[in-house]
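cron nightly-structures :: item 1 of 1
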Amino acid sequence: MSIKKHSPLRWVPSAYFAMGMPFVVLNMVCVLMFKGLGIEDSQIALWTSVIMFPWTIKFLWSPFLEIFKTKKFFVVVTQLVSGVGFGLVALALHLPDFFAVSIALLAVIAMSGATHDIALDGLYMAELSKQDQAKYIGWQGAFYNLAKLVATGLLVYIAGVLIDHFRAGGATPQEAALPAWTVIMVACGAILVLLGLYHSKSLPSSAAPQSQPRSAGAVMGELWAVIRDFFTKKYIGWYILFIILYRLGEGFVMKIVPLFLKASRADGGLGLSEQQIGVFYGSFGAAAFVLGSLLAGYYISHLGLRKALFSLVCIFNLPFLVYTYFAWVQPESVLLIGSGIVVEYFGYGFGFVGLTLFMMQQVAPGKHQMAHYAFASGIMNLSVMMTGAVSGFLSDALGYKVFFIAVMAAVIPIFIMTRFIPFTYPDNAAPSAEK
């Protein structure tokens, strides 16, 4: 198949792969890295959650990217900045205060990554017709999730192989983890730098900067109008609470599950190696996520969102029951544990579609649909970030057994609320502008 100079196939897959890498590495891979380097669970969960904050508030500076340069400029620069940042993290791991320095560098990468997301989504919408946007949306999603597979699967697996190699030479687990994770951080940086250089040539940039750019004051006025209109929507208080509660349990366990899988059995964990976690997350888990997402789409299209919502919530929260069982029984069967991880990813893929569609169909519609969807997504990410930040302290205080029971109790309100949440717009109907 021939590909023209700026065919979407020349840049959409690689650019969205670059979008996924920083988010997944910061959110999941660094949790295992710091665990291997001897950092306490509470500190890992707290700081790897706090550094994700830019993805929550990125809508605040998105209008300002329209004033300066082009979208292509911001995409390329942020890929290079993130790549160099990961290289600096690799060096920082060897410092006495490596954790504090690494977190500071990862926060810079998070700011760069969030800005990259804004610019790339804007480029996608500006450069492609609506027909092409629909045509290449599958490539976009596939390569974003491929980044998750590469990061949590391949890179974590390679880290485990390197750790075993260094331990065979007589190093302690922590001593072996240091050079292994240094290699992984260098690899992350190299991937993003190479992608940045590639995209400096392959990305289209037909959309030039505005000939009469808006002033910062005008942009701030527009941002205030978007925020004001969001908070005056019908049922918005109920919708915000629903968004927060929907992912409440997931926010608590997101950082703790990898730590629980890695922790020794003496400490109440399952004692898995990095190789095992990499295989389960990067292969079977990724496949289960995709399958769950696809099935949920057909399921909702058949029943309608209102009828399907309660069952979506049930499946989304099923993994918490699985991990509660694992924490109490501590099974030794790798097959059983792997099946639990598959259930986790399937449930996440299946249930998350419900929240996404709810925000698109009930929260976002109106004059500022795209901005309000971004706002709702920011609130959702804030909920996950805040619960993730305290999850380590809770798991340390309660122990894994009681912690997972507490998470199950915390998700009870969303089951109740799902039965009574009001819908502004009917299912399967194109909503008109709000009155």
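cron nightly-structures :: done
The domain at 11-200 is CATH 1.20.1250.20 (Growth Hormone; Chain: A;).
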